[in-house]
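=== Structure Prediction Worksheet ===
Name of assembly: unnamed complex
Input type: mixed (protein and possibly other molecules)
Chain count: two
Listed entries:
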Amino acid sequence: MDVSNTHLLDEAVVTTKVDAVIDWGREASLWPFVFGTACCAIEFMATAASRYDISRFGAEVLRFSPRHADLLVVAGTVSYKQAPILKQIWDQMPEPKWCIAVGACASTGGFYDNYTTLQGIDEIVPVDIYVAGCPPRPEAILDAVMDIQRQLKREAKFEVRNTDFKGKLDDI
Amino acid sequence: MTSDTMIKVTGDLLLDTLKSAKEEGYTLLLDITAIDNLYKSHPPMTRFELIYILRHENFKDVRSYKVPVGDPEIGVETITSLFASADWAEREVYDQYGIHFQNHKMLKRVLNHNEFVGHPLRKDYEITKGQYCTVSQDMMDEMKPLLKEKELDLQKDNLMVVNLGPSHPASHGTIRTLVALDGEKIVAAASEIGYLHRGFEKSCENHNYNQIIPYTDRLNYCSALMNNIAFAKTAEDMLGVTLPDRGIFIRIIVAELSRVIDHLVCLAAGLLDMGGQTNYWYLFNPRNNAYDFLSKLTGARLTNSYMRIGGMAHDLYEGWETDLDDVLKKIDFGITESLKMITHNRIYNDRIQDVSPVSAKEAIDYGFTGPNLRASGVAYDLRFSDPYYYYDTFDFNMVVGSVGDTYDRMMVRFEEMNESMKIIRQAMKRIPDGAINVPDKRIILPHKGCVYGGIEGMMNQFKLVIDGVKVPEGEHYGAFEAANGELGFYIVSDGSGTPYKVKVRAPSFYHLAAYPKIIENYQVADAIMTLGSMNIIAGEMDR
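=== Predicted Assembly ===
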């Protein structure tokens, strides 16, 4: 459904579902919150800069308040010290919300298998897309954003997602 | 080369010895660390030994002191009265090794979280034993004494306490500063770090020398290659080998290119913080061009892992000169365009001139190095004071500021990029042909043809991969002029292929330790610019 060109429609009436209209709008206006901590955050900066230009996919409105955002991009290593902050930010984001784990560290802890690094952020928050790489190239981050766009079209609407998820820091 | 002298001192004489060393001219405290001798084959009398590394004001001589610690609970006297930089350095030793420092005003953990039990760098602490943190500390235990010192009261003086960071784009994601505000003015501040503590030093004790190279990439991830080189060079110094000339010139070229990239990121982000988004495009795009060159050369954009102990993975590719030349032209263009927009821009100049100045004496006391120290007017650059890799034969200048304010810190970086490009251009002309690696089978992996074609080559490869490069027994501090300042590696080897201990002397750690002090009496918006101008890279700060 393309309603951007009004001349095509003229005075015609289009029937559709409310859900479809909302999804169509949501798809191209993801507002990411970048939880950038390390090397991957530098690559996210490159993704946002003019060569890779994340705004081509409608996700350039980087909001650094979680209450404005619907896509959490965790770019970088998350340590045990950082984990409660990550959880607090995730809890502050309004539903429906999505989460991308960018890079090896956020996905699994990467090669930091040690006393200080959280072995994957999915111990704390639910993750929709994992991006491989250390750090991933900007193209891979864009691919993850497009994956989320495809995913959100398929999902049930107006629902709180991941109700059955239980993180390690929940209910403490 | 760094002239190493190790002096043994007992704990009770430590303060007096360092006092006289300071009077002798050893004014820059580089680092404090400790060694846990638990697993040494011939352990000394005490389990723990403290290491103090100082640099002379001629910026050439380095002196280390070794202090045996009888009882870590009792520990030794603090030296914070002599060196301001000792404050956080001692806190780190306390955090990682559990050694007490008497009369230290705020001896608490700095890298690990407040719920952490035990001391991770002790040899009997298991590397994989993680501990969850449930709540962040409120930091008021640090703020209250600060306010008391200044005779301020939160209620009476109507102060507001605000967190800057850690999850904020201008705090680079991992730095938390608690500030007490009087209106917009910061009256007291305390910083908390460790959010990106990734256990570099513990990981080093569990990997062989070449396996550590990828970890060094992720210290200062804006100039990964420089960390590679600094680490490899320190290990090579311990082995007593030097690279063939072509190898050295490749290292100079990629190191200086990394310095340019590092400064580009710092300035682009700093200017973005103050709203200069156009500068961000102009400075970030040539950086992408530089990364194209590096990914063609090393296979990775950011974390290159190009160096090896005794050399590097492979030679330069065919046609690299044209590519690099093109990159330099684009960087040149980016810098020129960016400078056009800010040199006579009143917003830029008025906002950062005379903001958070650091005098030369203070800067040395805080342990500043690199561009931040040079901005304060101290002519210290290892490439000049203790030249390695033929740096003394290149024609380039040291860039020195005058007052050490935010403006100086940024402009020194702008100029340094031009100087680095000068070095690259000269090196491109002078680079000789020949070998790139040390011709030593005990260090460098054999050619793949030999590995698959003969038993000797295969055994050679097997031994090097399984055991690692065997570095002779000893202790060595190697320093390198990295993009952010003096990047030092203190390596203790027991003669095996895995280091017994590695300590990184990270410039950002000391820069940030001073940060809460220098932003006092300035506004919140100034503090953001000051942080941007100091180029704090969390990877090397928290390690």
